[in-house]
Amino acid sequence: MEKKVIQGFGHIPYRRAYLSPEEVLKNSENFFLSMNERRTVREFDSREVPEEVMITLIKTAGTAPSGAHKQPWTFCLISDPEIKRQIRIAAEEEEKISYSSRMPETWKNDLKPLGTDWKKPFLEEAPYLIVVFKQSYGIENGEKIQHYYVNESVGIACGFLIAAIHQAGLVTVTHTPSPMNFLSQILQRPSHEKPYLLLPVGYAKEETYVPDIQRKAIEEFLVRY
Questions:
Q1: Banded pLDDT at 1 (limits 50, 70, 90)
Q2: Domains of the chain, earliest start first
Q3: Spatial contact of 41 and 210, defined as CB atoms under 8 Å apart
Q4: Which of 16, 48, 54, 215 has the most CB atoms less than 10 A away?
């Protein structure tokens, strides 16, 4: 098949091997079973993770769809112990204020089953941190370029990233200290990039515990028409 020109732009054929309904069902079930084992983990082992693995995970995140294909994201990969220490100190300062005065009692009560507090040692213990920034707009040749559906696009990319981390055999915790402006300052990011999500990544400790909680049953969040 040759390329087609649609509205003045080239389009290439989409090719993918045909799978039978049985194969599609098996693939979907296998992926669900794998992802259903995913858990948020806050205790990290000291084992190193090859940088090539981290780069591949971020490449996977970059395959996510985005508004008008603007790909409005920046992924900062951090292994430098000093930068991780700075991030931990700044994050814990904000978290301490949040737990003491910003968060209402209902929120703190909802967090109790998860066993969280303002201390975030995983920000130094994990071999890598990934800080995701959303680009409010783009810059090309010194000109401002409009981006579309930025929050939605970056959120989808983060979902891809979290799934890729799990599939690789690693763990993470989604961390969103509020406010997160300190990440822009520490990492010296430009003004059109805003911090969106902080993900420590590594192996789980050999003996680690996660909250004994259950996910909603499909009947609780599926509506058929």
A1: low
A2: 46-204 (3.40.109.10)
A3: yes
A4: 54
The residues that bridge with 67 in the sheet, in sequence order, are 148
Are the CB atoms for 154 and 175 separated by under 8 Å? no
Say what the pLDDT of residue 77 is: 98
Contacts of 198 (CB under 8 A, 6+ apart): 87, 91, 123, 129, 130, 131, 132, 174, 175, 176, 177, 180, 183
Question: Taking the C-alpha atoms of 79, 73, 71 and 28 in order, what is their torsion angle to the nearest 10 degrees?
Answer: 70
Give residue 2's pLDDT: 82
Closest of 69, 58, 75 to residue 165, by C-alpha: 58
What six digits make up the tokens of 123?
């920000």
The percent of residues in the chain predicted with pLDDT above 90, rounded, is 96
Q: Which stretches does DSSP call E strand in the chain?
A: 4-6, 9-11, 73-78, 128-135, 137-140, 143-146, 171-172, 193-202
Residue type, 176: T
Which of 167, 5, 140, 165 minimizes the C-alpha distance to 71? 140
Which residues, at least 6 apart from 222, have a Cβ–Cβ distance to it below 8 Å?
Answer: none
Structure tokens at 61: 């995140």
Q: Cα separation of 132 and 134, whole Å?
A: 7
Amino acid at 132: V
pLDDT, tens only, 119-152: 999 999 999 999 999 999 999 998 999 999 999 9
CB atoms near residue 83 (< 10 Å): 15
In tens, the pLDDT along 47-61 reads: 999 999 999 999 999
| pLDDT for 154 | 98
